[in-house]
Amino acid sequence: MPIERINTLRSYRVFKDFTWPAGLMPFGQFNLIYGWNGSGKTSISSLFRNCQDGVAPEGDVELSVDGKAVKGSDFPEAALPPIRVFNRDFVDRTVFEDPNEQLPPVYVVSDDGKAKQTQLEALRQELKDIAAAYVEAQSAEGKATSASGKFCTDRARTIRALLIGDPSYSNYEAPRFRTRVERMALAAEPPVALTQEQREVFESTMRSTPMAPIGTLDFPSFHLADFTSRVLDKVQQNVIAQALASLVDNTELASWVQHDARPMWKPV
User: Fold this and answer.
1) Which comes out higher in pLDDT, residue 115 or 144?
2) d(CA 40, CA 57)
3) pTM above 0.85?
């Protein structure tokens, strides 16, 4: 299934309107195409590369393949002969080296080698970026851990100073404060922060000076049951009857009450 001739090339790269001359021999087993720079040699090799890859070329292209005309637009589906093109594009795609490095004495030439090398270089750069981001994240983590430790230490010291005198807070340190904060963070309902006014009231209470202790009161010793009995007896006595009995027994008092005593009240 040989390519016999290029029937037409219109608007294909440097070829504006090429038609295979009638007196030009068809392609043979070996063919030599030569010409000045810019005369179309690379364009023809690129056309054969389109045949190799099964890619439709630009413009209006038609080949004669095994006695049949094949349009360039039919390259993706047409039955084309197996072709391998070695041109400048092939070299650029397959012969490569690492940036800033000389070409090694032994290397592999392949159609997809350069794509893989490009992918490898991209992965190397991505690895460098990830490593840099990891170092930056480690640094940020260290700073955050240090800041968190300092915050817990300062808060624990403040709480211990405010609650001085309470034995349960005499050894209040950062780990205990951190545990308490973590427990509060996991609570179903977050704690409500005190207002500034409430905080000042509590702090004022904690800073207040205790008053002097009150001395013990001394009560006279008495028998409660006897005292209760005497009170009940007094309550049950009739005051008027006792007064009359006193007047009967004391005639002088009775005479004074009758003639000389003045009432302490006036009738209304």
Assistant:
1) 144
2) 15
3) no
What are 230's two structure tokens? 């005497």
- Please give the C-alpha separations between residue 179 and each of 79, 172, 184, 186, in angstroms, as whole numbers: 76, 12, 9, 11
φ, ψ for residue 11 (rounded to 5)? 55, 40
Give the tokens for residue 219.
């009560």
3 state DSSP class of 140: helix
For the record, the structure tokens of 130 come out as 């990830």
In order of 87, 94, 188, the CA distances from 118 in angstroms are: 20, 11, 53
- What is the rounded distance in angstroms from the CA atom of residue 136 to the CA atom of residue 144? 12
Which pLDDT value is given to residue 268?
46
Q: What separation, in Å, do the N-terminal and C-terminal C-alpha atoms of the chain show? A: 152
Interatomic CA distance for residues 80 and 65, integer angstroms: 7
Encode pLDDT of 202-220 as tens digits.
878 777 767 778 877 776 7
Q: Say how many C-beta atoms besides its own lie within 10 A of residue 143's C-beta.
A: 10
Three-class SS of 87-134: CHHHHHHHCCCCCCCCCCCCCCCCCCHHHHHHHHHHHHHHHHHHHHHH
**Tokens linked to 48:** 């054969």
Which whole-number Å values give the CA distances from 109 to 42, 87, 97, in the listed order?
21, 13, 11
User: Measured at the alpha carbon of residue 17, what is the angle toward residues 13 and 23, in degrees to the nearest 5?
Assistant: 120
Domain ranges of the chain: 3-85
Residue with tokens 């890619």: 55
User: Is the CB of residue 13 less than 8 Å from the CB of residue 40?
Assistant: yes
